[in-house]
Amino acid sequence: MKIEQRSRVLVTGSAGVIGTELLTRLAARGATVLSIDRLPLVQPVPATTHLQQDLVDVDLATLREFRPDVLFHLAAAFERSLETPEFFSVNWHDNMVASHRIAELVADTRSLHRVVFASSYLIYDPALYIGPTPREQARRLSEDDPIRPRNLCGVAKLFAERELDFVGSDVSTVHARIYRVYGRGSRDVVSRWVRAALKGEEIVVYNALNRFDYVFAADVAEGLLRLAESPAASGIVNLATGVGRAVGELVHALRDRFEGLAVRNMPDEPVYEASAACVDRLRGLLGWVPEVGLEEGLDALIAYERSRQFP
């Protein structure tokens, strides 16, 4: 379905790094949007009503009465791959319960035609891409690969996928399994290192030989929008670049952009990740894959952070 002026779109987690990019694109299409997040929006967006509320506590009747055609469920909480006990209650509240409430909404909202869920590659079996020695090439994970959630966040994402499929049998649902997101205003390691570099602080590097599929948040938003509009898209679709880049490559790119950057390399941990997405299905559905390479995305991020620190 084409998202246009007549479209009514509900976006959860709209104040986040992906949500901010998505709202901008929806506004450009003229859609009427209801957004919900505990945080305020970075800036007002045309034709967008923002509810600054916790998704767990919001009255679902308010969301149903909006009569959304399309739902983007982005709201989530993440922590490092090795989650701490303090994250357990956060994961339960922000991931498990919040997504269950969205499933309740989907089950009882007749106006809905399309649901796009921001899922995660953390669902795949980590034995496929994590091992005791570094790899020269990333393991490209496909939608048909075995699953065994890596941590609590991965468990929550898998549960949400299954529950949305169960309750939304009459709704076309896409589960976009997203990889390592970075972007303007995010809290990921790329953004943290850029902010540190701009302040003249050192960056601390662990396992420089690890490989990740870094995907720019603007490209994620674009991909989610295209998946929502694709009549053939349904089920699980990887959303990433398809290229695994070593942490050391990111450090090298930063050094090229910040002369004299202080880098402290920590001893390697005895576990190495080398993951990337197989994007064959994404390309086949959309004729498109994320276009922003790591260096280009890094330049955009540096310009953004510099404008914030030195307006």
Can you give a write-up of this model?
A seven-stranded parallel beta sheet has the order 3-2-1-4-5-8-13, with helices on both faces. The chain has 311 residues and is α/β, with parallel strands linked by helices. It is globular and about 55 Å long. Helix 1 links the parallel strand 1 (8-12) and strand 2. The chain has nine helices and 17 strands.
> Termini, distance in Å?
41 Å
CATH superfamily: NAD(P)-binding Rossmann-like Domain
Helix content: 25-40%
What topology, given as strand order, has the largest sheet? 3-2-1-4-5-8-13
Q: In the CATH hierarchy, what is the architecture at level 2?
A: 3-Layer(aba) Sandwich
Summed up, the helix count is 9
What spatial form do the alpha-carbon principal axes imply? globular
> The biggest beta sheet, please?
7 strands, parallel
The CATH topology corresponds to: Rossmann fold
What would you call the structural class?
alpha/beta
Low-pLDDT segments: none
Instruction: Please trace the helix and strand order, writing H or E for each element.
Output: EHEEHEHEEEHEEHEEEHEEHEEEHH
Please tell me how large the radius of gyration is.
19 Å
Work out the strand percent.
15-25%
The count of DSSP E runs of length 2 or more, i.e. the number of strands, is 17
| Tally of individual domains | 1
